[in-house]
Amino acid sequence: MRFLLITDTFPPDINGVARTLATLASGLESRGHQVEIVTTLEAAPEAEESLKRHIVMAMPLPGYPGLRMGFTTTWQMQALYEEFRPDALYVATETPLGIASIRAAKKMGIPTVSGFHTNFQTYLEDYSLPGLEAVAQGLLRSIHNQTARTLTPSIDTAAMLEKWGIHNVGVLGRGVDTDLFTPARRDPALRQTWGADESTPVAIYVGRVAAEKNLDLLTRAFSAFREVHPQAPCVVVGDGPKLKNLQTDHPEFYYSGARTGNELAAHYASADVFLFPSITETFGNVVLEAMSSGLLTVAFDYAAPRLLIHPGENGLLAAFNDEPDFLEKTRSAATAWNDQIQRTAAREAAHHLGWQRVIEQFESELLQVIGTTPQHPA
């Protein structure tokens, strides 16, 4: 089959959505399908990528220059469809790029599955656009209900979309590369650059350094961790529009910038406790990566943490958006940072969540909107 994936973000962007879509696209290709990408950025010069890209015009998202919004027209997308002849589309964006793509597909009768990957409607207040969440929900409902199926990564988010009136919502989970994200990549030399020996716990955050990630609570959580271990290094891995502000306000933290591949895996494995205070995730891929790396994770009780973390067995959950509870759970994690039973259990919980099952489900979802039954290898 011929599939076209349409998305504003794709590698070399460094974020969970870009990594997820790249994994899904390459997974479809490995299963014998022809896959092409419509996106806003060329592949990195050093990238070994077999997928053909179609690049559209783009502009930075307001207040977030690291991400882009794609623009195209209905007739331009129709021309692309005429050339490629896709059997089905996966539209992972609700921007003008996605809207034009869905309209063109409707005109040409091409089955379309859409993806709800990001809670952009909750970002509006963070980016000085308060009071527009209801308007955004209506727009998202209109867009997704023009497609045959909407996929989102967690039960929580699926329930939210159904409450908004979006039809035919399905849950497509996420996976993790357990060979990449493993405790075996722990690096004593890297820990030394943070001022930590093996008797010193390290608290880490991995993700965008942006307003929607609840950075104020992150800084207070780091402080709570250091109430228990005053010399503990606190490490921030990632980039984003609030990085310079965070560096200025908190020079006591270590900042590693954005990391990928083996470097990212080494940063996870070289820490001990993962703090994830975000309340805006549709899933939270980083939680899977941290647990696969053998870290004790503190997060709020929703999305991926709710699915993966069993409190007191392999991590700690705080009541959703209860900041005092999150800080208390952080102090508990600081005390239990070297609990090898819990950390091993975290690794084991992630170990069963490889990408292959997700790719097979994704293939099945696309084939079903075409009216084809998936033919899995024997």
TrEMBL record:
InterPro entries: Glyco_trans_4-like_N, Glycosyltransferase_grp1. Gene3D superfamilies: Glycogen Phosphorylase B. One of its GO terms (molecular function) is glycosyltransferase activity. Signal peptide: none annotated. Residues 14-179 form the Glycosyltransferase subfamily 4-like N-terminal domain. It comes from the Bacteria. Keywords: Transferase. This is Glycosyltransferase involved in cell wall biosynthesis. It comes from Prosthecobacter fusiformis.
